[in-house]
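hi! just following up on the protien thing from before. the input was this:
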Amino acid sequence: MFRWRLPQAVCVLSACVCLLLAYEDDIEVNYADPFYNEITEGDTPEPTPTSAPCSSPDLTKWDKMFSMLENSQMRENMLLQYADDIVKVEMGSLRGEMLRFLAQYGGSCGVAVETAGRRMALQLEGRLRETLERLKLRDQTSSGNSVGNSNHLEGMLHQLLSAARSQASRLGKLETSCLSSPGAGIGANSKTGFQRQEGGGAGHQDQEVVSREVTLDAVLAALQQTRVEQEKVLRSSRQRYLPAGCEMALLFPMRSRRIYTSIIPEVPLSISSFTVCMWAKPTTVSNKTVLLSYGNRRNPYEIQLVLAQTSALFTIGGEAHLVEARGVVNQGGASEWIHLCGAWSSKQGLASLWAGGKKVASTPGVAEGRVLPDGGSLQLGQERNGCCPLPSSAGSRVPGFEEGFDHKLAFAGKMTGVNMWDRVLSEEEISQMALQEGQGCQQRGNVVAWGVTEMVPHGGAQFIN
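and the predicted 3d structure came back as:
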């Protein structure tokens, strides 16, 4: 195939060479026709616009892109140079300002601020050590109470954060007042300060001593204010968490005759002595707010633990056997957790009421020789007084109590650590259970045990963590 194509290619190439030679021979240059510029004055033609002698062709898109890149690079170099110059100038100015500041305020005021900061740091370090020791003891005593430990740790972290912020704010105020004081510019390390001290004499030294005393007084006042704020934070954090290491609480959202909690005791309530304790945080307190009540068809008021305005009342066998303590609840309702205990012994006939781990009232001759009857109804947040009809549901009816509850007596708030024993607890046992930061919830009764005995919320009552 290649052999046949080669002669044909040679022929075509020869023909092309011949045509080129013939074309060059036909070109003739003819200069025979001359042209003269014969322009007269009357026949002057109007000038016609001509194109620019150096007109450039249209730029392609690639040329435009390269041009834009060159311009942007130029601008970038200019901006970098300008920014570099600005930074150098500003840094030099800042350095000069810092040197002047140190020369002017490097004396007594700086020493006072440093001393105050050192004291605050030592106080904060001591507080941290104390907190860590408490957490270690809490972990050793209650290793299984993970929820309570996490809540307590979170609360302590909030307290430390608030304390650190408060101390930072106090230091800022102290520095501002120190720099704005007339004697702040006298520096012990500056030359002008030495010259003024040498020339001013004893009067200037007295003025400096007075200014230092004023500064120390301001530091002391700031520290005292910080301590007050830390105590407020500690009190508020205690109110946000459950007391005595409790993990859950009963919530009574409002006062209603349908909201209460029934208790099914571990053993029959045919007992001749007992102690009942609980933590309560009422939202509001009326003339009679029932915390706990027990009764049967013959006497609905066998046991009652009641709040009345600022007082606490404890009854055995009816209104005739009453123990009352005033000033237990804050005026206008309670805003904090309170620990209440009622103890009674049939043998001695002595009934006692405890608030906050202290005995606040005691009455002798209360139901002496009496034995509490079994088969009654034990509930929290209400009493069965026969005033009101029960709901139509048959499950809420109790034999002997054909009537229901009164919403005026209902409890609204939170309860936790409800326990009952078939004996009278000692003063040491009750005081230990009443510690806000203790582990009172770990001590459970043998008649009613918090977290073990069955408690059935009704209405809107519910358990919360």
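Helices lie at 2-26, 61-105, 108-141, 146-179, 191-200, 202-240, 427-433.
Residues 61-105 form the longest helix (45 residues).
cheers
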